[in-house]
Amino acid sequence: MKSGAGRGQPFRTHLLFPALLLAALATGGCSTAPVVVEGDEPEPPVFSASRVLRPDVEQFGDMDDPFAPFNKTMYRFNYRVDKYVLLPLVIGYYKVTPRFLRAGVHNFFVNFRNITTFFNSVLQFSGRKSAQTAGRFAVNSTIGLAGLFDPATAMGIPQHDEDFGQTLGKWGIGAGPYLVLPLLGPSSVRDGVGLGVDWYVSNWAREALLDPNDWWKRVWTFLYVIDTRAHVRFLYYGTGSPFEYRLVRELYTTKRRLDIEK
Amino acid sequence: MSIRTLRSVGILAAVLSAVLLPGSAPAYDYPFDDPFVATVVGTPSEFRPELAVTVPLKRRSIKIFPDRETPELLFYDDKLRYSYALQKDPAPLVFIIAGTGGSHDGRGVRQLGRAFYQAGFHYVGLTSPTHSNFIVAASESSVPGHAYEDAEDLYRVMERIWEKIGRKVTVTDFFLTGYSLGAFNTAFVAKLDEERQSFRFRRALMINSPVRLYSSISLLDRMLENIPGGEDNFGQFYQNLVDAFAEVYTRSDELQLNEDFLYQAYKVFKPEKELLGALIGTSFRMSAANMAFSSDLMTNFGYIKPSNVRLPKNADLAKFNHVAMRLGFTDYFHAYFYPYHRAKTPTMSRADLIEEMSLKSIEDYLRTSDRMYAMHNEDDLILEPGEVEFIRDVFGDRAMIYRNGGHMGNIQHRELVEHMVQVFQP
Asked: In terms of CB atoms within 10 Å, which of A11, A198, B4, B61 comes out highest?
């Protein structure tokens, strides 16, 4: 995370994921069944499912979630990382930087992401999205001073956001089981693979176009993480609902389906 | 007929006063006369005031009961979250209490907070006693909905927060406000303050308060009767709603998962009017489900969860979620709230408890105290017939009643924003 995308990082990432997976399975993989409190007889609730729900009527929010124990553990892990690391960084960032600088940084990353959007638009055989994305990238990278400004929006060129998960979806590949990724949050097996591919493409493009040294890579990663978090309007356990995990799972899955249909 | 006539006269009067008294209060021209549309859509931006100021909002949390054990499912609610924004110079401070299920930094509190901050107030945002976080971290009994107990809990929280921020700031006067259920809480907290004297509120403003809680919760529960095919189809209806919300979310990058739900959904889907009732009912139903299940986890009462059973961190909550969403506030009252209180006070009848949870139980105080103010809407969905008249009668000159706006729909209208700030600038 910290070291940027140097040669050492893929290796470290390889180690990180199994480690987290193991940790997750060790800490939370087992217990999902209610535990009877010792000493007292459990009693059925006033409103049991059999009393309230008609068995022949469909309920809501149910979907296959074979990795649920892992996912829930990751959800909690992400909450803590978010609360104790990412959000303090974002708040500090807003304190020490002027607005125009933050806007420049954000524009830069949005513009750079057009590379993966272009790559995916081509793979999705969308001429319109490919052309518009290429246009945006050309305008903002030149007139927009390497993407720090966004004249393309003023010129009315729409911004698309296509990732490899969507591309796989367009090719007819199903989402697979729901997956909460460490640090990255709600995803699916397909979208997780997509993230890896996009990361690789983006990294390759960066080397080819800019060839930054290690110091710049560190600055890049640091700002990228902060800027990305600052623009995601989501707080773990922010809904006030004890059923939030289910709600977020449902919303994420539906949103991705619609993203692909778009 | 007569209501319509009254409304036309009202509009005429508003127009005349705007023409005859140039420079006086801005005209009240809130556009939606259907209370369901108003409640869902809120105030379109062209009717809002300019609130350009950047609010330096701070979010904090505080442990209220040091020895309390939090259920592992709700570990994140261990501390009570709150927020505040302080002026640089000495200024009056206003506490703002959120409505049913609302949080300290939700849309409702932030809207009011921004208006008061721009007018030169410090403000502290407080989560509703019906919100999971409050139930887990700050409610003595963890069984919310009791006017007097909720007021005690809120007062304790306010004192503790004041201990923390009091040294950072100079406060000239204390004020108190709240909307919806938070307005109801405001009345009982203000009355409690007369005894405790920690803040000596200069004035307290109740915005769209219920009068008798049981009436309001019955009205809200009944809104789900509007679900196509009846309440047994709730699962399907709710599923469609969540899908619709995901679609809204897909179309908009600047959308919060919770607060703008209804407004955004309305703009995209323009639902038929019968559906609006079901939408409003569902929004409140989510609050009821969250509240009841969190409370049940805390007390081991056995309302939805079997008693004497502990749910581990990764427990599958599907069944509990389905059941909780089928139970309304009135179910909570009859099968949990009342039995819980009768166990403590065996002589108390159901009817006694219903009448006690009402502004009428402190009518004398509200009638005579010159610091109590109210704002309300003629067509508020949470009031039964006659309850607006009760507000008008009890508060007299201290009440401002608008001709439309539904439940909280007009809260961002520039005339209301100006009025609420004026109440606090005596």
From this structure: A198
